[in-house]
Amino acid sequence: MGRKILSLLLVAMLAISLFAGCAKAPEKEEPKAPEQEEPKATEEEKQEEPKKEATEDFKVGFVTDTGGIDDRSFNQGTWEGIVKYAEEKGWTEGTEYQYIQSNEEADYIPNLSAFGDDNYNLVIAAGFLFEKAMKEVPPQYPNTNFAIIDAIVEQPNVASVTFAEEQGSFLVGVAAAKTTKTKKVGFVGGMDFPLIRHFHAGFAAGVHSVDPSIEIVDQYAGAFDNPGTGQQIASTMYEQGVDVIYHAAGGTGNGVINEAKNRVSNGENVWVIGVDKNQYADGIYDKENNKSVVLTSMMKRVDVAAYNIIEAAQKGEFPGGKVTALTLADDGVGIPKENPNLSDDIIKTINEYKEKIVKGEITVPNNMEDLKAFEENLK
Amino acid sequence: MLKFITDEKNQRFIVPLVSVFLGFIAGAIIMMITGINPIEGYRALIKGVVGNPRRFGEWIVASTPLILSGLAIAFGLRTGVFNIGVEGQLIAGSFAAAAVGILIELPRFIHLPMVMLAAAIAGALWGLIPGFLKAKFKVHEVVVGIMLNYTALHLVNYAIKILPGSTNTKTVDIFESANLSSKFLSSITKHSRLHWGFIIAFLGALIFWYIIERTTFGYELRSVGFNPHASEYAGMKVERNIVYSMMISGAFAGLAGAMISVGTFNYARVIGGFEGYGLDGIAVALLGNNGGLGILISGFLFGALKAGSSAMALAKVPKEIAEIIMAFIVLFAAMNYGIKRLILYLRKEEK
User: Fold this and answer.
1) Number of folded domains in chain A?
2) For an engineered disulfide with B97, which of A111, A125, A244, B258 has Cβ 3.0 to 4.6 Å away?
3) What range does the record give for the signal peptide (chain A) (predicted)?
4) Do A19 and B56 touch (CB under 8 A)?
């Protein structure tokens, strides 16, 4: 019996090595091809063919992180941008555009590669967690363009898009400072890394520009997809007397919004500032009167970024190897047009600050060191 | 043919095969209900696993940790402990492997075995705690195991950040001498992440089978699992054997963790929550009938469903379908008594 199993195992191993052997053969031949000069003409012809196809049926792929396209945050925003473009062109999902959700971090590379294998023209991924995968996959698919949002990857066929989150966060900081009655505001971050510090530093700078005496309580949840933790942190902060919380925590922030809803329903006076999208609708606690706990939102127009990149790629103007930085001046970040919870007075103040930032009179800090220097200057 | 199927001796592998078959049938029905052509769906799945060399490589990569975590669970089940702490032991192992890979640099032929040893020891130590508490104080290993999963998750997340050069999300890349990846394997599979870990998975299955089936030590462990009182009466050291069971199970889990950190990624990551390799291991062990060979096969099957889901998504089949099929297979495997009855019923008909 034991021998049987052993021999079976050996056969299985052999089978695998056999397969490996088979697969190796074509690889060996390939490097020879460039040495021969004659068949160049045919090669060029070959290259032209797929290009023609490319303009006829353009295919866009989107790889989400574990949050999925309904994370009410940047994955959803990016997907909405893609869908908007697709609808204008009359595309159908599955043929011209498609998404793959990653179950875990280990899926990033295979998911990006899957689109490459299927000769997609453009593959988009949102989130700096894709940085490493975006360095490894695109070199293997030179005929596919890749775009990454929130990170900078230097590859000839990768376009990077970044946002000046600190500028938008500054404006919601102003809103928070003007709204708080307890002189205590809170910041909930997803995971503690430089990108989220942009939100943190910008927000703190905005709050203290209005009133340096306001206390800012901050905490990092350690995850972007854990509403339970978000709710817990929010509960603790509100207990401490915080009355406005700004969250930059993706799905975790939904817990913050839920906690605020519960408290407002119980007659407390607390607010949440949304992030990435206009989260007003997520914070509605009184449907009849359309009342929401979301004071305003720091919008990061990932949808616009995705839309623009697809448009550029289809026109043949794909900004490969370049970094597109979207700021307050481009409306890449900012607050929503409609803010039912902000008084005209506050909106006026926000617009004044916005102008100063756009003109360069205020340089908003995007890390904690610069924030310290910024706050020193305020005194 | 029917005789072969209904023969009692062959039930061991007939029942899992029937479970898998029923699982895929159930998946097909779900696809039909949701308006997807099941043939297209399964074609996409197969294409996603063996469609090109890269996908084949990714299939092996996805299967490797599943096999080892399946072995970990099965080792516990065969020896009478339910090691739900595999998830935590796996996290501990993945960290230990990465830490040894980052902190020291040695020639590959020493370094790589050291990394594997570190992972196995870390997993074994993390398994020692519930084993010891169960043996000495009769604390149930499931309770301690679940608690220790969280402890491992947060402790490792903290420890990763204090390694030199780590950012808040991951460590630096480990030394090349410590990672399992191979340019050769990667090139024959067209840039997949295929690494040498699959050999460790095969060896693991072999060692598992050898310990359980061929040694007195393994016989004692199994005997303690079957009936601790009888074993004690027969002169076996029950308490010691429980601790050993948990430690060996933990060592397998630790190796599974090493597959992820020094195989798939080449660095250790801060994770927000459990990635479920431990739970998947329960499914693998269950379907594989807690045997070495069975686990190898079921590990590759579940790996295929995991790795193939991206190709299914491209063919407009939601990735959840693959998860549903997995769940159905586990469900049918758990109902093995019913399936056996069904097969026995067939035998009666025959007579």
Assistant:
1) 2
2) B258
3) 1-25
4) yes
